[in-house]
Amino acid sequence: MLSHENGRDVRSHLPLCDSYEWFSQRAWVEIDVAAVAHNIQQLRKLVSPGAELMAVVKADAYGHGAVTIAKTALDSGASWLGVATIPEGIELREAGIKAPILILGATHSAEQIYAIAHWKLQPTLCSPKQALVFSDTLESSNILEPLPVHIKLDTGMSRLGTNWQEAAEFVQLVERLPHLKIASIYSHFATADSPDPTVMNLQHQRFEDAIARIKDRGIDIPCLHLANSAATITNSAFHYDLVRVGLAAYGLYPAPHLRSKINLKPVLQVKARITQIKSITPGTGVSYGHHYIADREMRIAVVGIGYADGIPRNLSNQMQVLIRGQRINQIGTITMDQLMLDVTSIRDLQEGEVVTILGQEQDQKITADDWANQLNTISWEILCSFKHRLPRLNLKVSRR
Ligand SMILES: *Cc1c(COP(=O)(O)O)cnc(C)c1O
Questions:
Q1: Is 288 a catalytic residue?
Q2: Is the CB of 343 under 6 A from ligand 1?
Q3: In percent, how much of the chain has pLDDT > 90?
Q4: For 298-339, what is each residue's pLDDT tens digit?
Q5: In this structure, is residue 136 part of a structural domain?
């Protein structure tokens, strides 16, 4: 995978031609590694000094590249990593990362349990039944060390976890099982990004109630955690011993009302190169279905990026890109590997020039939030959609 280790300034209106391999890239994702460090440091300042910070790097760090993001986050003040699956955890271990890794998703089978123990990953336990499978599997294995496990309570998300009312019995069961050691108890908010805190406060109250009842049974809890990015930014009462931040680490705000509370820098940009420029006459149709018809003499540019790279096809005829700091309209249906632009306004544009699909040029930006609003989805989904066939260029020096 390509990376600019020396982090040179890459002026986006000039072709990159320092190596044949690089010059030949039709499209790529740029990762501003310094922005990750900035975001983690800003979060670190916001979080109660007694609480640790987990960088959630599931789904290949929301499409940013898990290993680079994890290493940068750990160097910048995070001490935990969160992933969704065992293979995501193994990728980090294989890259030499030693920090504790929590698997946020569910795991069940004996093979998964052996892999967890072997790679020193830490599973989430969601039910008494699952806890018994873990204990029995470890009993019949030759694994001697107790496995650190994290108890998940459902306080209102209705996703993984045991209901908060049954928390005390569940925790007591796990406490008494051989081979397992409770490392933390946690829950997850359903509406932390909403300006209305009613449900979040209810979940917080339920979590508090469950913890009180667990403590009543004389059980010692080493670590409690509840907050995702939105809850972390909203209220320090949710920080407990650890916060789990995903989106904010990537420089996006979980909701507009949180913008004033912390300064975050977007990490990811998507770039592509112009592969051909041509003139078309009035009445000429552009792309599949001819959903765009030229109403005048036009110059159009073909760009080497399409929906197979993660550009949403539903943005056809509705998105803009940046070239030389100008906003340029995309025209016609977005195809699998290519899309077209109306570049009539830039007279001397050259084939090979770089187009910013998502990101910033001079004072113009096109953000994941813009796309999310247009497509009626959330920025989390936009970030996760860029496919692996886009190489990642890791820039070590921030350009903003
Ligand atoms: C994904 C996830 C997070 C991170 O959420 P953000 O909103 O991206 O900060 C935290 N906790 C759990 C359990 C998650 O699944």
A1: yes
A2: no
A3: 89
A4: 999 999 999 999 999 999 999 999 999 999 999 999 999 999
A5: yes
Query: How many angstroms separate the alpha carbon of residue 57 from the centre of ligand 1?
Result: 9
- The reported pTM is 0.93
160 lies in some domain:
yes
Q: What type of residue sits at position 78? A: A
Per-residue pLDDT tens over the stretch 71-121 = 999 999 999 999 999 999 999 999 999 999 999 999 999 999 999 999 999
Is the domain of 146 the same as that of 95? Answer: yes
Q: Tell me if residue 58 is catalytic.
A: yes
- The verdict on residue 40 lying in a domain is no
229 lines ligand 1 (CB under 6 A): yes
- Compute the distance from residue 305 Cα to the ligand 1 centre, in Å: 30
Mention every residue, 6+ apart, whose C-beta is less than 8 A from residue 24: none
Among residues 215, 278, 288, 387, which one is catalytic? 288
The residue ranges of DSSP E strands in the chain, in sequence order, are: 27-32, 52-56, 80-83, 101-103, 124-125, 147-154, 162-163, 180-186, 224-227, 242-245, 268-280, 285-286, 292-293, 298-303, 320-323, 326-331, 339-342, 354-361, 364-366, 392-395
Residues 291 and 203 in one domain: no
Range of the domain at 378: 4-30+267-395
Q: Is 254 in the pocket of ligand 1 (CB under 6 A)?
A: yes
Ligand 1: atom nearest CA of 58 is 1
Residue 75 Cα to ligand 1 middle (Å): 20
Total domains in the chain come to 2
- Which of ligand 1's atoms lies nearest the C-alpha of 193? 7
